[in-house]
Amino acid sequence: MLSEGKEELIKNFKLRNIEVEFFERLDQASDRIKKLIGLECTVGVGNSKTLKEMKISEKLRERGNKVYDKTLGKTREEVRELKRQSLLTDWYITGSNAISIEGHIVNIDHSGNRVAAMIYGPDKVIVVVGENKICNTLEDAKNRARNIAAPLNAKRAGYNPPCVELSRCVDCKSSERVCFNDVTIEGQYKKDRMRLFIVSEDIGF
Ligand code: SF4
Q1: Model confidence over 115-169: pLDDT tens digits?
Q2: What is the position in ligand 1's atom list of the atom closest to the CA of 159?
Q3: Containing H/E element for 185?
Q4: Which residues have C-beta atoms less than 6 Å from ligand 1?
Q5: Ligand 1 atom 1: the closest Cα is on which residue?
Q6: Which residue is closest in CA terms to ligand 1's atom 2?
Q7: Where would I find the LUD domain in this sequence (predicted)?
């Protein structure tokens, strides 16, 4: 990313009470997360290809953190409980579908547990995205979320809304829809609650 755009992005997020940190590689972001989160803390982890690549749930669990990651649930009840418990954790770690240089974090979500935790509940939130998620404007970020992220996420999760075949959103009303929740984080009322980690790699959708 050009340094001008980087400065602009950092400034715009700061105005919205979100601190930005840049990393060259995913493992550096992972080390930073481990440093920030105390061993005694509970951690919720959102379903994200980026976080799966980072293996952050496994790393935190191995060193003793209590981790609530729905993807580690074995039964429907366990998954539901992990989703619920993750809403009351000390920290929540999640990916996102797009961010804008103007300072937005744009998310599409199926059941809504991930965006719920981003908005309220966990004391602190870390959002991890690859550089490929950076868009210039809010409009570009929304387009990315609907036309790039949604079809790929739907395919990954085994759903088949129209965008999977068309590779673009047609604002469907399908029962297979993956974007029942379309949420833009505009900022934080509380300083230091949310951090955005941007990794200089193409990761996730
Ligand atoms: S509204 Fe339907 S077509 Fe559009 S992104 Fe969502 S699931 Fe895909």
Answers
A1: 999 999 999 999 999 999 999 999 999 999 999 999 999 999 999 999 999 999 9
A2: 7
A3: strand 181-185
A4: 146, 150, 161-163, 169-172, 174, 177-179
A5: 171
A6: 172
A7: 7-199
Whole-angstrom Cα Rg for the chain: 16
Confidence of residue 14 (pLDDT cuts 50, 70, 90): very high
Q: Which ligand 1 atom lies nearest to the CA of residue 150?
A: 5
Atom of ligand 1 nearest to the CA of 176: 7
Q: Provide the CB-side half-sphere exposure for 46 (13 A, CA).
A: 30
Second CATH level (architecture) for the domain 3-135+179-199: 3-Layer(aba) Sandwich (3.40)
**What gap in Å lies between CA 177 and CA 25, rounded to an integer?**
33
Confidence of residue 185 (pLDDT cuts 50, 70, 90): very high
Can you tell me the distance from the alpha carbon of 143 to that of 137, in angstroms, rounded to the nearest whole number?
10
DSSP tag of 132 = G
Cβ atoms of 51 and 205 closer than 8 Å: no
**Average pLDDT of the residues in 77-81:** 96
